[in-house]
Amino acid sequence: MGFSTVIRIPQILLTGLICIWSLGLAAQESKDTTSESRVLIENADKSINEIKDKKNRQYLKGNVRVIHDSIFMFCDSAILYKNQLQAIGDVIIIQDDTIRIFSDSLYYDGDSKYAELFYGVVLENKEKKMFTERLYYDLENKFAIFPDTCLLINRDLKLSSLRARYNVRNNTAYFYEEVTAIDGQTSFKSDSLLYDTDIDRAYFITSTYIQQEDKRIYCEEGFYDLLDKRAYFSGNPVYFSKDQLARSKHMSFSGADSLTILYGDAYVKDSVSEARAEKISLDEKTNDIILEGDASYAEADKFIEGEIISYNQETGDVRIGGEAKIEMEEGILSGDSLDYINLSDLGKVMGGAIWRDTIDNREIESDVFLYREKDEYFKAIAESRRPLVKQLVDKDTLYFSADTLISAKDSLDGTQFMEAVRYVKIFKSDLQAVCDSMFFSERDSIIFLHGSPIVWSDTTQFTADTIKLVLKDDEIKEIIASSNAFIISNEVDEYYNQIKGSYIHAYLDSNRLQKMIVRGNSESLYFIRDEEDAMLGPTRTICGHMAFYFNASDLLTVRYYAEPDSELIPIQKASADELRLKDFKWSEQLKPRRWQDVLKVSRSLAGTDVSRKPQDEYEKDVNEIIKKANAIKGGKK
User: End-to-end alpha-carbon separation of the chain, Å?
Assistant: First the structure.
């Protein structure tokens, strides 16, 4: 009985297998033989050997197991010829401990260790799986080519492309042409993408579009880590989220803490605001935006600058460090640092604080500046330096200073008022003053001076229990001294013209005395000269109601509204007491000579504990809320 009578192989099947083998062989004729090892058959349920032209061809069927070096192959049926293997049905390749390849059919060249797999191909490397319909795999160099659509699945990641290459040895997969990736709620679209299978990192090497829920990102370079959901974007990156747009030279994103950081010429814009800085951090959990390096933040009616700006989108709280500045409709506020709590409308500026009121032409300088933006309330407090106010009056600058300055809106009519407390000093080129407290309201444009006030106008000194300076058209037009009013003017040397009464009302024009009305226990002492300008002596007059009229500050005439009691005392006979009215006090030493003098406290502070100066309820609220805000922010870090 011959071999052919034992098992007959249908001619059509035999011809088909030979054709398939021939095609595979032809594809490998140009390849060099790199290994002399033989492909070995470890098992087959059925085996047929066919010898033709002294060449052996093996037909294998059922539980076929093949081994080649450290490579194991399994299939339903196979043909082995000249160290080339053709396998059909449930093909499995196992290489090392981690690489497994599954397919419907296989062509394998044992000399070059080159494999072609077809239909339902799956390449597994640890937990990663790559699916395709056709795969070229170099088992010697562990290099795979996916000429057809490729799909990689790794945990939550699904990455697909029309073409791909996978270098198993260096853990690098290159996907190109219509690349799409989905990792949980994050998706990518690109023309090319590089994937490190060892550290689970996707590299963006061309224009890439990333989307995560309502966030969209465009970049041309960067990477994305699948394990910790961390990403880096460069190459003209752009970030979109709801109505927010962001640009910078580089971006990073951390999924663990929902933190996005923009580096280099960073820019963020939404429907109501715009921010710029060298670095911008966006925290989705806390809704904090932190701007660092030449930072600026703009809204419709506000512009903020500083070295570091921290802004909470939910609460509206702001913290600025390093040359802080806020430009508002009312003016500009600046300082070394600024904290603002929106819920309570409380703000605090520390170090070199300056408020420039662009509407009222006023500037305030202070070490500490507290404010309520909605109420237009502020409080300036002395620490190392007393607060200073500069106010444009009559085309000149009025300077005044005190330990504490307060400004707010009147609750009745909404007009603005200002109050200065403790050791108030005022300087203007033609008017100076000192007192213990000062009050000014825009309602009547009157400056009230309380607590031993002294006012100097030209060479004239005014004192009283209370003095009012009446402003009209930004000029001081009237000076009103009430209760124990006393006016002194230095005539020459130790001779002083003097007027006193319960009430004195002086009228000025271009800061020169024009008229003065005196009422209540009125007295005057004026020095008289003869026609040759020689001093005759003081004329002392007592009258209940008097009026003095001046020209260029020189007395022209006096009008008496009641019978006066007057006496001329010859200068040679006048005693020292007769040269002074009762309660005379010339306080020239307290007069500010230049604007810088208002910053100096001219009265003794002995026995005064500056560290225990009174603190109003507003200041307590500010410090308490800012202290709590700092504690909360410190706890988040």
Answer: 90
